[in-house]
Amino acid sequence: MIDVTKEPMRRLEPRKRDSHKGDYGRVLILGGSRGMAGAPSICGMAALRSGAGLVTVATPASAQPTVAAFNSCYMTIPLIEDDYGIADMANVVDLMDASERFDVWAIGPGLGRTEGVAELVAQLYRDIPRPMVVDADGLNALAMMLKRNPKLLDKPAGPRVLTPHQGEFAWLSGETAKGAAAERAAQASSLCQCDSSGLTVVVLKGHETVVCDSSRYAVNHTGNPGMATGGTGDCLTGIVAALIGQHLGPWDAARLAVHVHGLAGDLAAERLGQVSLTASDLLAFLPGAFKQTPHR
After folding, report:
1. What integer pLDDT is reported at residue 125 of this predicted model?
2. Alpha-helix residue ranges (DSSP H) falling in 163-214
3. Which of 189, 210, 221, 244 could hold 204 in an S-S bridge, CB 3.0 to 4.6 Å?
4. Domain boundaries, the chain
5. How many whole angstroms separate alpha carbon 84 and alpha carbon 116?
6. How far is Cα 43 from Cα 234, in angstroms, rounded to an integer?
7. pLDDT tens digit string along 80-102?
8. What is the pLDDT of residue 100?
9. What is the DSSP letter of 231?
């Protein structure tokens, strides 16, 4: 049994006058595939708009020029690929060696659904000691590999934030998400409990998104139906990663991220209407959402 939290939502600390970009997190985003360059790009831009000091997008070599063209403020690095997509073992050594260079990892946006992707994601999930946010195709990869190793989610090398929508949650858990927030929180908490170390937070997205760990949950009340469009989840992934990079714990980062993400959607819908809202509009309204969410 888990209880709704009574703790106030944490905010970011005010920035010190003598701070530098290294103080605000080095975020690595692993995503993209042929025809899916937009997803990691939106994620990277959201991380930048959410205060990350440095953002790097690791993406297949064929997608790298397109990803790089979306924004000049993040860096890109190429991943080795074959005719089927990202090659697993060809990349895993380089990525493992890079683990100490990045403070936070975000895995999944537009990554593709191949065997190589599934094996790569599973190994990084187990072995990378840094905090990691997993969404989209990263979650699909975990679901594929759970069929082979039911203990895959247990005792990862570092904190993990999983951000499934209802369909992705069903793939991971084998359960259909229920309607009431308390019931969805109990289901999501059961997924957290697959990790006996207590390092996992689940963000079950949808109307009144639920953030939970193995013992508590919070319900988000920002957001609107206009956000039911492609790319908004990629945006949330970038926000969560950026906030972890700014020294919020995974639980606090996830709570603040879903609030700010939904508030940006509300501000966008107020100006543009729900029908015309796109994920890129959230990026434009994130500054206003952060301004309306004061620092501590």
Report:
1. 97
2. 166-173, 181-192
3. 210
4. 22-290
5. 8
6. 5
7. 887 766 766 567 767 877 778 99
8. 83
9. T
Token duo for residue 264: 């940006």
Which residue do the tokens 């139906």 mark? 225
Contacts 24+ apart (CB under 8 A), 58-64: 58/28, 58/29, 58/30, 58/31, 58/95, 59/30, 59/31, 59/32, 60/32, 60/33, 60/34, 60/85, 60/86, 62/34, 63/32, 63/33, 63/34, 63/36, 63/37
pLDDT of residue 96: 78
Burial class from Cβ neighbours inside 10 Å (0-12, 13-18, 19+) for residue 20 reads exposed
Phi, psi for 56 (deg, rounded to 5): -125, 135
Where does 22-290 sit in CATH, by number? 3.40.1190.20
Give the full edge-to-edge strand order of the sheet including 210-212.
Answer: 3-4, 216-219, 210-212, 200-204, 160-162, 132-134, 104-107, 26-30, 54-60, 75-79
Give the residue carrying structure tokens 């930048």.
Answer: 48
Q: How far is CA 238 from the centre of its chain?
A: 6
Q: Given the structure tokens 């064929």, which residue do they identify?
A: 62
Is 38:70 a contact under the CB 8 Å cutoff?
A: yes
Single out the residue of 170, 95, 106, 168 nearest to residue 134, CA to CA: 106
Residue 39 or residue 83, greater confidence: 39
Locate 61 and state its tokens: 């070599």
pTM: 0.96
Q: Tell me if residue 122 falls in helix, strand or coil.
A: helix
For the record, the structure tokens of 54 come out as: 């440095």
